[in-house]
Amino acid sequence: ADGAAFQVARPIGFTPRPFEASPSFVDGALVFAGADDLESPPTLYLGRVGAPEALPPVSGLASLLSWPRLQATPGGVALVFRDGGGAARLATGADVRSLGAPRAIAAEAAAMVTLGVFGDGSLAASYQRPVGAEPMVSFVVRSSDGEAWTEPARVTDASPDVHDTTLVGRSDGGLDLYYAYPPSAAGFALFRRRLEMDGALGPEERVTADEVGEATKPEGLRLASGDVLVATAVIARAHARAPARARAENQPPPPCSR
Asked: What percent of the chain has pLDDT over 90?
């Protein structure tokens, strides 16, 4: 109710398929991808417990490793994913049942595609890929209409191993980029920086300390209070990943630097 206390997690089982992934909350409901295995083309389901609704197929949605994610937009909803050829794609529609033909976001290979919506309704998308000897580089692109996109810009130059960028709306209409990289031998930590509508990037801020553990896979949500709730996965040394939370107070936007 307040972003501070959570119920104990329990399995839900929204779809009749043995593999479920990529939950998105849009149009007041959860949408999941379900498949028979990791390699088969998934079906998107509108998540109603006990009676999931299978949504129309999306061209190019090749497997659960397409990482489909839905995002509410001023005109309806948008779906981003990686297609079977490794390209970042965007499909938009009035609702989750009427998504149009996917369009290219970038010409280069991409993984972990995410989307953000600026206050004026324009879009920003992020994706990651290896570049030369750099293990993983995260990029961000912008578009006013979902058709034409800017040239990709690096999310940060602070590390050659940047992962899992997600975009969270700011109360002033901008976006915050949350992402992870290893700043030291202690492993991954979470960082953020502001993205202006003109592409200007603000100063980088560290979000998690070493004591939290290796934070990855951030998911952000701005609460009605103005606070930002950030959920992460924490890489555990001796066992499987465990969940963690970080809650950052709403602060005035830092000055932009190009």
From this structure: 62
Angle subtended at Cα 92 by Cα 21 and Cα 61, rounded to the nearest 5 degrees: 40
**Over the stretch 208-243, which tens digit does the pLDDT of each residue have?**
998 888 989 988 888 878 888 888 888 865 433 344
Q: Measuring CA to CA, how many Å separate 33 from each of 67, 87, 112, 243?
A: 9, 19, 15, 21
d(CA 198, CA 13): 42
Sign of CA dihedral 201, 202, 206, 207: negative
Which distant-in-sequence residues (6+ apart) come within 8 Å of 113 by Cβ? 67, 69, 80, 81, 82, 88, 89, 105, 125, 126, 127
Contact of 204 with 179, CB cutoff 8 Å: no
In the chain, the amino acid numbered 32 is: F
Q: 17-58 pLDDT, tens per residue?
A: 888 888 888 877 788 899 999 999 999 988 765 577 899 999
pTM for the whole structure: 0.83
Which is nearest to 90 in space by CA: 98, 80, 100? Answer: 80
Task: Indicate the burial class of 124 (C-beta count within 10 angstroms; 0-12, 13-18, 19 or more).
Answer: buried
Q: How far apart are CA 182 and CA 188, in angstroms?
A: 4
Q: Which burial class, exposed, middle or buried, applies to 197 when counting CB atoms under 10 A from its CB (0-12, 13-18, 19+)? A: middle
Q: Which two tokens stand for residue 124?
A: 């920003």
- Report which of 226, 186, 223 is spatially closest to residue 206, judged by C-alpha positions: 186
How far is Cα 62 from Cα 83, in angstroms, rounded to an integer?
6
200, 257 in Cβ contact below 8 A? yes
pLDDT at 168 over 60: yes
Question: Strand pairing partners for 128?
Answer: 111, 138
